[in-house]
Amino acid sequence: MNFKDLMPTYKEKTPLLFKYRFTVFTPVFNCEKSIKKVHDSLLNQTYKDFEWLIINDASTDKSHDVITQIIETSPLNIHYVNNKENKHKMSCFIQSIALAQGEFLLPFDGDDECYPNTLEVFNNEYKEIPNELKPKVAAITVNCEDQYGNPIGNLFPEDPFYCNTFEAAITNKISGEKWGFTKTEVLRNINIHPYMLTFGFIPESIIWNTVARMGFLTKCVNKTLRIYHVGVEDSIMNTPMTSKSAFGIVFNGLAINNWFLGKYFYKAPIYFLKTAYITLRSSKYLDYPLKAYIKSIDSFLIKILFIIIWPFRKFMR
Fold it and tell me: Any idea where the Glycosyltransferase 2-like domain is (predicted)?
């Protein structure tokens, strides 16, 4: 096993013509009680140039029946995919990239809500980006609040704040739930190894870090547009964490250190050492030998760290 062989790469493809401005993508798993709220949020949008892409990830409740009923009467442009086998959220996201007919892809979970002017604000914020900067900007991100009106996370240091999201996360200490769209064309240029998703749960941050790695900027705006429901049972976001998630944690940790350590280590050494620690701790749930990690790691420092700590992994918490 060489983890590097499975890591995403980036190569520009022939540009496509898009049918809509936005694709609003909703991954669904057991959302029979909440999916109507998502529909109502989209139905009330002041900006109408969008499609709603729903991927039902083999729900075990009545989500399919509820979605079918919505489609029968809704005036929205709805593209519905009903997966017969559970693929998990990351796989559904990759699936949505190939299916999206909108210029901008906006993930919107099956248990959340947004304000009626959300798409209008997103569209206006993009139009206000200086023309010379637009090719470099891949995404726009805003803030969220919970269903009780409480902010989730801190504000961006400037408004607007143009940044490399990885660098901003480790140097500006931006935390909390954020939300936004990414250019579909940029996402389609990311090459995903077909076997990457077969080894366990993979965090979506592997995609956002690929975008940041390629030098794209994100326009961050201190506006709150999404209502993120916390404490919701059976949502696709609340899949129980098990040892099956270990591969994704290890894979993501190796990618972070390979891609960013050389450039950012002196800005945030504790962050990279902590990432290596978490990677080592999670590796005890996998059956790969030490040599598989050593040949997958670029940094000599991290290789030495793995060799020293490897015999003590089972004691790490």
Answer: 23-128
Residue 51: give the domain boundaries: 3-230
Q: How many CB atoms lie within 10 A of CB 87?
A: 18
* Contact present, 82 and 73 (Cβ < 8 Å): no
- Residue that the structure tokens 């490399």 belong to: 164
| Residue of 196, 195, 187 lying closest to 10 (CA atoms) | 187
Query: Which pair of tokens denotes residue 283?
Result: 């590796």
Structural domain tally of the chain?
A: 2
| Residues near 60 by beta carbon (within 8 Å), at least 6 away in sequence | 30
Whether residue 170 has pLDDT greater than 50: yes
Residue with the larger pLDDT of the pair 16 and 120: 120
Average pLDDT of the chain is 92
Q: Could you tell me if residue 235 is inside a domain?
A: no
Rounded to an integer, what distance in angstroms lies between the CA atom of residue 181 and that of residue 161?
A: 15
3 state SS for 165-206: HHHHHHHCCCCCCEEEEEEHHHHHCEECCCCHHHCCCCCCHH
Q: Is 224 helix (H, G, I), strand (E, B) or coil?
A: strand
Which CATH number belongs to the domain containing residue 137 in this structure? 3.90.550.10
Among 203, 230, 257, the domain boundary falls at 230
d(CA 114, CA 112): 7
Task: Give tens-digit pLDDT for 88-100.
Answer: 889 999 999 999 9
Q: Is residue 256 part of a domain?
A: yes
* Phi, psi (degrees; rounded to nearest 5) at 35: -65, -25
Nearest to 285 by CA among 253, 239, 316: 316
Residue burial 279-313, b: 16+ Cβ < 10 Å; e: rest: bbbbbebbeeeeeebeebbebeebbebbeebeeee
In a domain, 188, yes or no: yes
Q: Which residues of 154-177 are buried (b: 16+ CB within 10 A; e: fewer)?
A: eebeeebbebbbbebbbeeebeee
- The torsion of the CA quartet 106, 151, 159, 221, rounded to 10 degrees, works out to 10
Same domain flag for 193 and 270 = no
